[in-house]
Automatic annotation (TrEMBL):
Entry keyword annotation includes Nucleotide-binding: no
Cleavable signal peptide: 1-19
The species this protein was found in: Pseudomonas paracarnis
Protein name (record): TraG N-terminal Proteobacteria domain-containing protein
Source species taxonomy: Bacteria, Pseudomonadati, Pseudomonadota, Gammaproteobacteria, Pseudomonadales
Transmembrane region(s): 104-122, 143-176, 582-602, 608-627, 648-666, 672-693, 714-736
Recorded superkingdom: Bacteria
Swiss-Prot/TrEMBL keywords: Membrane, Signal, Transmembrane, Transmembrane helix
Length: 775
């Protein structure tokens, strides 16, 4: 019943206020112009404005002269600003209630004090005649306590103390929010650690095909040279002799230029060297492929040049490994040493493609290689990691250059908190910019060689032979299928690789889920055992999760609507179709997913529900705190024998009043600080949530690399991750609420627990606990 009355009073208070005069309207406009965007210099002048525009604006009438004086003294001390709050001129609303109660308690207190004085005089007279009167410490303290009671009840001291503390708390938390708003706003945009790791992850994922293409380009270049060298070979008994031509002499005498970027295209020094020598040998063109970058970041240019250099190293080591493995089978190294076919792939050349010749210019095969498939993977992985680290520098710079967040200081603490956990300004824009920059990198690697001989001066037979050798390209190579071998070595068929397959499946789920797993740093892998797979979540993880949950709910809802449309169409055209049952099952599953997404959304906002609700409950509890302490003081003032001889209860009540007032002063800032603590813990703890999800998901089902098995395994990981995430944030919010409740009980040790604030706090925690148990 108490709650209903208070809610009704709050609802009707705005209707009781008087219309503003023209002068008041002008003053309001002036204040708004100065105070709508505040800084540390204007905060003190805007103190009254902040109180009026806070959630307590509807009880601003309680800002009496005494309360205003208290706010000015204490508020100035806490904020180090000269606060000058004017008492409210509004005499409506709660003032009516407190005027009545103050009048009644003042009359009663006068009666009690009169009776007390008479009783004390009678007692002193009586005990003095009996020779027993002693002016003990307790007797003196009794008069001090009664003086305090008289001040708090009759002079309005309790009223000014409690409500002054409430308004000080509003200004104090507003000052803290104003001072922290710039850094909090920047946190929603700039998150260097997360940006660095995301940039590395995106670059690692996107640059792999570019590296593969570079290897193919290097391989095309190498095969073109070997094709040309095939014209230099002559049988000499059981061996093969190498006879120099214009092409081979050119390669020996010309040094490759350094790789550079020209017009957005990577100018490969080795490819240009081949082109020059092909022209010198009478060929008009040679195009092994190209890599382009249409951006303007010099760091990326340099990183691509180094990546191309590593691709050439990879190609050379890969060719040595391939030939070594092919030639050791069935003694082919000895059996084919006089065969022209095998030299098309395995002619012994150095890393600059210069033939390594023996005595009498006799050629040989590439020597045995100590490079295995793992060494090749290491070369590729290290090259991609090096590029990713260089690209991450650009990614972090993008974050620093982004326009700052629009998050601004708001005197409404709950509204400010809500803005903070829902405003994901930085991550989406940064993600778009970074992926857009990566998309500017492209490559083309031809699978057919395009070197053409100028037929002038050649007879028909020579021209036909050269055309057969050069224009046919890779299809003419018979000793080794280099296309297939190189594709397998590079791992281009990811469905044969379990790790790559799960990575692509997680990427698809991440896309559907509004980047929720990317935001949380969840990779589906054990980041405590696997190198460099652990990503840090965004610092403002709450905002990222809220954004992801909304996008996820929207995506699931759209799929449900689409499936329902298909179901209706099939039902009308093919009522006996077996797909109807499958679609119905899918719709039911998606409806569950949609419901769960709403639970996750509510869970993500649970810190607002718990701590924001406790803020309102604390202020509402001040109403009952005032009434409750008045009753306690009246009891202490009653002229009973216990109060006269043992004034301990009165002292405890007075001490409790000042302690509770101290809590009111610091309560809102404490709750706001706990809220920020929850945000920080939640962000950093997401790594553990991801680890637990991965460990539990793997324990349910083995990993044998099969497609369906990988889908089930990854689905379990994703579901467990979402479930743990939801329970974790709710539990974290409840722990924060319990922490605040413990602090409150410490300060308000004599506060009547049947107050509205305590009941609201209890109800909030009970509801959140029910949600946790349901999950």
């Amino acid at each position: 019943m108490k709650q209903i009355l208070i809610i009704l009073l709050m609802a009707f208070i705005p209707l009781l206020s008087h219309a503003q005069t023209e002068q008041q309207i002008t003053q309001t406009i002036d204040e708004h112009a100065m105070c709508r965007v505040q800084d540390s210099t204007t905060f003190a002048q805007c103190a009254s404005y902040n109180i009026k525009n806070s959630p307590l604006g509807y009880i601003e009438s309680l800002l009496t002269p005494g309360a205003a004086a208290f706010v000015n003294v204490v508020g100035s001390a806490l904020t180090w600003k000269e606060i000058s709050v004017e008492p409210s001129e509004n005499t409506t609303g709660f003032n009516y209630i407190f005027d009545i109660t103050d009048s009644l308690t003042a009359i009663l207190c006068e009666v009690f004090l009169t009776l007390t004085v008479m009783f004390q005089i009678f007692r002193m007279t009586y005990t003095q005649h009996q020779g027993q009167f002693v002016l003990s410490h307790g007797f003196g303290y009794a008069f001090i306590n009664y003086a305090m009671i008289f001040f708090l009840l009759v002079c309005g001291g309790l009223y000014a103390l409690v409500w002054g503390a409430v308004f000080v708390s509003v200004l104090f938390v507003a000052y803290i929010m104003m001072m922290t708003a710039p850094s909090l706003a920047e946190t929603t945009v700039n998150d260097p650690a997360a940006y660095q790791q995301r940039a590395e992850a995106y670059a690692t994922e996107q640059i792999g095909p570019i590296f593969d293409s570079m290897v193919h380009i290097a391989d095309n270049n190498d095969r073109m040279r070997l094709e040309m060298y095939n014209l230099n070979l002559r049988n000499k008994g059981i061996s093969v002799e190498f006879v120099d031509t214009a092409f081979s002499n050119c390669l020996k005498n010309i040094k490759a230029d350094a790789d550079t970027f020209f017009g957005g295209t990577l100018s490969d020094g080795e490819a240009k060297r081949s082109q020059k020598c092909a022209i010198a040998a009478g060929y008009t063109s040679f195009d092994p492929g190209s890599v382009s970058y249409s951006g303007f970041e010099s760091t990326i240019n340099d990183a691509l040049i180094e990546l191309n250099n590593q691709a050439r190293i990879y190609q050379y080591e890969y060719k040595k490994n391939l030939c070594a493995n092919s030639l050791k089978v069935d003694g082919k190294r000895e059996a084919l040493k006089d065969s022209m076919i095998a030299y098309q792939d395995c002619l012994n050349v150095d890393s600059n493609s210069i033939p390594v010749l023996g005595e009498g210019n006799i050629v040989s095969f590439l020597p045995e290689s100590n490079v295995d498939s793992q060494s090749l993977r290491d070369i590729k992985d290290n090259a991609i990691k090096a590029f990713a680290k260089s690209f991450a520098v650009v990614g972090v710079q993008f974050g620093e250059n982004m326009e700052k967040s629009s998050l601004v200081f708001n005197v409404n603490a709950i509204s400010f908190m809500l803005d903070l956990v829902t405003q994901e300004v930085g991550a989406p824009k940064w993600r778009t910019d970074v992926k857009s920059e990566l998309s500017k990198i492209s490559s083309i690697s031809s699978e057919s060689l395009s070197a053409y001989r100028n037929a002038v001066g050649l007879n028909e037979a020579e021209s036909a032979k050269l055309t057969s050798d050069l224009s046919g390209g890779l299809s003419n190579i018979k000793f080794i299928d280099r296309d297939k071998s190189l594709s397998i070595a590079l791992g281009e068929s990811f469905w044969s690789n379990k790790d790559d397959m799960e990575h692509h499946l997680l990427s698809a789920a991440n896309l559907l889920g509004g980047n929720m797993f990317d935001n949380a740093g969840f990779t589906g892998e054990d980041c405590f055992q696997t190198d460099n797979t652990c990503q840090v979540p965004y610092v403002n993880q709450m905002a990222a999760s809220t954004s992801s949950n909304l996008m996820y709910a929207q995506a699931v809802f759209e799929i449900i609507v689409s499936l329902k449309g298909v179901h209706i169409l099939l039902e009308q055209t093919m009522p006996n179709s077996p797909f109807l049952k499958i679609i119905e099952l899918a719709i039911h599953f998606l409806q569950l997913a949609l419901g769960f997404s709403f639970i996750r959304l509510i869970a993500g906002l649970s810190p607002i529900f718990v701590l924001g609700g406790m803020m309102l409950a604390t202020v509402a509890g001040a109403l009952f705190m005032t009434l409750g302490y008045k009753i306690d003081l009246l009891k202490s003032a009653f002229p009973s024998h216990e109060n006269l001889t043992k004034p301990v209860q009165a002292g405890v009540s007075i001490a409790s009043i000042f302690s509770a007032s101290l809590w009111l002063i610091i309560s809102l800032p404490v709750m706001f600080a706990v809220f920020l603590l929850v945000l920080g813990i939640y962000g950093f703890a997401m790594v553990l949530v991801g680890y637990w999800a991965t460990a539990m998901g793997v324990s349910f089902i083995g990993e044998n690399g099969q497609f369906i098995n990988s889908i089930i395994n990854l689905s379990l990981k994703i579901f467990i991750f979402q479930l743990l995430d939801t329970v974790f944030i709710i539990k974290l919010s409840l722990m924060a609420g319990n922490l605040v409740t413990k602090l409150q009980s410490f300060f308000t040790y004599n506060l009547r627990n049947e107050g509205l604030g305590e009941q609201i706090q209890s109800q909030i925690q009970q509801q959140m606990q029910k949600i946790t148990r349901a999950i």
